[in-house]
Amino acid sequence: MNNFVNVILPIPLQQLFTYSITEAEKDFLEPGMRVAVPFGKSKIYTAIVAEVHQKEPTAYQAKDIFQILDERPIITKKQLKHWQWIANYYMCSLGEVLRSALPSTFLLESETQVIKNKEFTSESSLTDDEFLIIEALEHQEVLPIQKISAILDKKRVLPILNNLLKKKAIVLQEEIIEQYTPKLIKYIRLNERYIDQVALGELLEELSRANQQRNAVMTYFSLHGATKKPIKQKQLKEVSKVSPAVIKALVEKEVFEVYTIQTDRVNFQEATDSFKELSEFQEECYNDLNTSFEKNEVVLLHGITSSGKTEIYVKLIDQVLKQGKQVLYLVPEIALTTQLIDRLQKYFGNKIAVFHSKYSLNERVEVWNNVLNKSDKAQLILGARSSIFLPFSELGLIIVDEEHETSYKQFDPAPRYHARDAAIVLANLHKAKVLLGSATPSLESYYNAEQKKYGLVELNRRFGNVLLPEIELVDIKEGYRKKRMTKHFSERLMVLINEALDEKEQIILFQNRRGYSPIVECKSCGVSPQCPNCDVSLTYHKLRGELKCHYCGYHKPLPKICSACGNPSLDTKGFGTEQIELELQELFPNHKIGRMDLDTTRGKYGYHKIIEAFQSREIDILVGTQMLSKGLDFDNVSLVGVLNADNMLNFPDFRAHEKSFQMLLQVSGRAGRAKKRGKVAIQTFNPYHQILQQVTTNDYATMYKEQLYERHQYKYPPILRMVKITLKHRDYIKVTSGADWLYTSLYNTFGTNILGPTSPAISRIRNQHIKTILIKLPQDKSINLSKAVIQKIKNSFQSIPNYRPIRFNVDVDNY
DNA sequence: AGCACGCCGACT
DNA sequence: GTCGGCGTGCTC
């Protein structure tokens, strides 16, 4: 009987691929294992086994697999089901899901290696390039193709290599490179023969003249006696203060032995704190949640900022861990949650594993393996959106914290999934519960709760009855008209800042734009420098004296004269965080100003440093973009200022109002903790805007009602679902005609439910012209059916030769 | 997606 | 004459 496997390859192709396997391989292979398979002319890829079967393909000859890479599945059956759901729902291939889901370390790829043929001698027959290669191979026997390319400084080296191959001068070989390197730590132990007291006495006697060596041995004993644990070489060196040579000498004398243990790169301490006593309201909320979970799979917890949601989560987590089940705690942006990690770590100690993209690949593999092995170290997983892809075996609870955050949605590349929604499906597969938590729930979740699809629990008290901050709107239209502004600060805001500084309290200022100023404009001719690759104005970054594009990374020095008219009359318009920071330094020279935005938080510990400096009160005023609004608690902040609320409100998106409300309330929540009532000042040109009014009264209910009414009126989610199609190409005419064609074909099925084609606000990025089409999925038809139609139209689109090179992205639930 | 193949214009 | 540009087709 012939045996075959269907495998998922990490490429964006819809189909699975079938390979032939031997009888022995059939007995060994299971879905979820990795195999290395030859693909195309020469490459070897890592694939995941999806199915083992006996159905021989008829249209082609299946190739043999190259190698089995695992002894047991590294992907669980539940994961494979979950992947399938994501691929179907978000209209992408399983291969794309695979690429996102698996740490890239697991995806070994072959690299072609060039090896010299030793029997080859007739070097005279070689061309110059060929000779260079052979010469390089004299020094180093094996060279990857890239190196060859570098040596010759040419891109196309394959023809040359083919000639060498013909002349039998070289051999090619595909090498698979294992990327994961376990971290090994050196330990020291005493040679067995000195366990005997007499032998030990003799040893010490023998070392009586070697003071340092004796010292090292004595230190070993005191360490060993104190901890009874294996002793690291490093530790011994540090405590005894001897040089490495001393230890080496003892090893050579066979007094000490060195051995290595593979360790995890990330280790947490044991738990140090016991759980906090819940307040009366928290306790009540906790009980409500448990009651709600009896009836609902998903419960939405709407708890105002500082209501102590985390403490309630902790109690729920503990309850689930005690049943021996795993808990996934999703957070929007893990790098911002060092405070949360610290807190959870105190309660759960080394049961926590953290998973996010700023971790190194090796660290991610370790977390993956720990989860797969159901290790004690990974009972509670704290992670960003991609942690829904970890190989859980027995998930009991998923917490989605700050459920409304947009960073749960992946926009590029595919799979364009929403981690909250994918988490609910994942929980379903595990029969686990989901808790969505937020102070400002997304309309869709609140709607689902209202429709009784989710349970709903509300928590309206701040912990310790701290009052909600007092929010005032400051009209800056007047201020500007009467020239009463101090740079970008209104009189009122200046008063509040001075008051807070006098009281030695800290201040957070929020401006949702980085750089110095978003537009540079010539006062003589009105021309402003644009990015050559994108359809945007360049942002001025004063510190670096540069004009920068925030979309493609293009940058150049600020020109002295206008490139259009030649006059030295360039001026800046609008302002970003950098300008605010500089203004503050001028206005408050005796206070320390900090800035937190994408530009200052690069690197693994970028955030950490700034947050710590602010927490330890080294910084008095912190200026930042929206990243300030996420999950940070500072106990000495009495004032939060929003410099301009209008650009958010006027953003051209159906969710602009909802998002503004959420962001403003979240930033406001940073004000006034423990001690006293905080103050929030929101500067705006339009203080009568209904959203701003709702923010001042913390009126979620009215905001929800009004926004939902509008969504009904204009048929937007959560009333309807949407799919967004994005077309991109370098040729403007090509995309435009493609978009028109697409509109016409979609019109037959969807009629007026299609919006577009439109050029987005930024219609060209990295020299790619963009067109978008929005499809509102009709309520009266099945969503799957509608998606099938879209898929069919996509296929026809791509079979038109002229449109084939146009990039075609489908984004389901593009919000 | 990646990669080979093949066809065409710009240079040693 | 070759190098390298990119359009086209295919991958079990």
UniProtKB/TrEMBL annotation:
It is an enzyme of class 5 (isomerase). Its cofactor is Zn(2+). Residues 290-459 form the Helicase ATP-binding domain. Residues 557-727 form the Helicase C-terminal domain. Signal peptide: none annotated. CDD domains: DEXHc_priA, SF2_C_priA. InterPro entries: DEAD/DEAH_box_helicase_dom, Helicase_ATP-bd, Helicase_C-like, P-loop_NTPase, PriA, PriA_3primeBD, PriA_3primeBD_sf, PriA_C. Zn(2+) 2 binds at residues 531, 534, 549, 552. Pfam families: DEAD (PF00270), Helicase_C (PF00271), PriA_3primeBD (PF17764), PriA_C (PF18074), Zn_ribbon_PriA (PF18319). Zn(2+) 1 binds at residues 522, 525, 562, 565. Component of the replication restart primosome. Binds 2 zinc ions per subunit. PROSITE patterns: HELICASE_ATP_BIND_1 (PS51192), HELICASE_CTER (PS51194). This is Replication restart protein PriA. Keywords: ATP-binding, DNA replication, DNA-binding, Helicase, Hydrolase, Isomerase, Metal-binding, Nucleotide-binding, Primosome, Zinc. Initiates the restart of stalled replication forks, which reloads the replicative helicase on sites other than the origin of replication. Recognizes and binds to abandoned replication forks and remodels them to uncover a helicase loading site. Promotes assembly of the primosome at these replication forks. The keyword DNA-binding applies.
